[in-house]
Structure formats: C-alpha cells, structure tokens
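To: structure subgroup
Subject: Chain for Friday's discussion

All,

I'm putting the inputs and outputs inline so they're searchable in the archive.
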Amino acid sequence: ICAISDVLFFHRVQTAREPIVDIRAFTDRNFALGSTFSFCVGIGLYGLTYIYPRYLAEVRGYSAVMIGETMFVSGAAMFFTAPLVGKLMTKIDMRAMIAAGLIIFAISSWQMTWITRDYDFYELLWPQIFRGVGIMMAMIPVNNIALGTLPPERLKNASGLFNLTRNLGGAVGLAVINQVLDDRTDLHISRLQDRV
C-alpha cells in the first residue's frame, strides 16, 4: 500500500495543475542542496536534544524541571546567536559560516565523548553552548542559500518543504539513535546476565 501510494503521490504532484505539494522546487540546485543539508542538520539538532534529557533522567535521575533547566542553555545560546549570525552574513561568506558552524557543532559533540555518570550541569554547559552556536551558524545561512534563488511564487511552498526536510532528518536521526540505544542496552544486559 505504501509503495503504491508513493507512486500515485508523485504522479499526482507532477501532473496536477495546482498540486498540494509542489516538488518542482527541488529542481533548483541551491534548494536541493540546502534541503539535503537541512536534513543532516535535523539529525544533529533533534538527536542530541533527545539524548541529553534521556541521560539526565535515566542516569542522573533528574526531574523534568531539572532537565529543563539544564537543557535551557542550548536554547539560550541559539536565541542569542541568531541576531549575531544575521549581521555576520552580510560581511562573511555564508559557506565559511556554515563550515564554521559545523566545526563548532562537531567540537560540542566531541566534548561529550568522555561522558560519565558524574556529568552534571557544568560539564554539559560548554558542549550545549557550542551546540547552540554551531547549529545557528550552520542553519541560518543554509536557509538563505536554499530559499534565496527561488522565484517568489514558489517560495511559500518551498519554505514548507525545506522545514519538512529538517523535521524528516530529525525523525530519521531519532529512530536510528533509539535503535542504537536499544541494541546497546540489550547487549550490556546480556553481558551483565552472563557475569551474574
């Protein structure tokens, strides 16, 4: 049913005079590359936003309020970085900003490679700040590049598609992360059973 619906959907959006979803925006190279990049950013954005609260709840035993207070740092970093990135985009090549944002995001992820059960608010502080800054430095220029070359009549539909790709990336990323967590949990439980 899914495969047949997929074929019918693409047939319909390509032949209808006014399709519900106009996928012709993907014929623009900047939009197609920007959407692909947005998909990847969605994995990082939503993936770590999922892992940190799970760690804080399951390992550290934090309440929902304590998790919110700890995770607030990343949102605040994004909030304060957005206007700065907007001003910098007029002075710096957007591709350089995207590269810098990805490097900063990679540094934030690398800082978490030695996480232990003792990591607390202050150990998570800088990785979250770097993550928020890096995501905004990568995401805002990509939005401008992806949507900047489209004709005005396609912009509204393309904007929805662009956001969809980011959310779809987040959904795929969360599914993969959850699968890995479940597999590793099963592995460690079986190892503990063998030891006992």
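Points worth raising on Friday:
The two ends are 47 Å apart (CA to CA).
Helices lie at 2-15, 29-58, 64-88, 94-110, 121-148, 152-195.

D.
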